[in-house]
């Protein structure tokens, strides 16, 4: 005689295995590379613009392509502004970004100043 066991006691374990198996198809660790430009477009471009120069609707947004300003900021200062904000216009993102995501975002922000055209040279001072 064939004996059929009830699946009821094993159902929670079976569901947990299915959930875990589904989670493995959506990598969230080193399997998914972090892209600073994607993070920037998703979280920063609405104020700073796609190119980092800012948008007319948010005139207080810093021009991230200004190499004179950006080269004087340390990475930890940029990270602090992202995490804590800068009232009145820059919102605080708090712990929205992991340390790794923040690193690639800062690297992308730095690249905006490197890739920007150099500012026009100042006219020579007139001799008196």
What's the helix count? 6
Overall structural class, as computed from helix and strand content, comes to mainly alpha
Q: Which term fits the overall shape?
A: globular
**SSE run:** HHHHHH
Number of E strands: 0
The residue ranges in which pLDDT falls below 50 over 5 or more consecutive positions are: 14-27
CATH fold-level label of the domain at 40-115: Cytochrome Bc1 Complex, Chain D, domain 2
Shape-level CATH architecture of the domain at 40-115: Orthogonal Bundle
Give short descriptive properties of this protein.
single chain, 128 residues, mainly alpha, Cytochrome Bc1 Complex, Chain D, domain 2, 6 helices, 45% helix, 0% strand
Structural account:
This protein is mostly helical. The protein has a domain at 40-115: Orthogonal Bundle (Cytochrome Bc1 Complex, Chain D, domain 2), CATH 1.10.760. Helices cover 45% and strands 0% of the residues. It is built from six helices and no strands. Helix 2 (36-43) crosses helix 6 (99-115). The longest helix has 17 residues, at 99-115. It is globular. Residues 14-27 have low confidence and may be disordered.
Question: SSE layout and pairings?
Answer:
Elements lengths: L10 H14 L11 H8 L1 H4 L18 H4 L4 H10 L14 H17 L13
Helix pairs in contact: 2-6
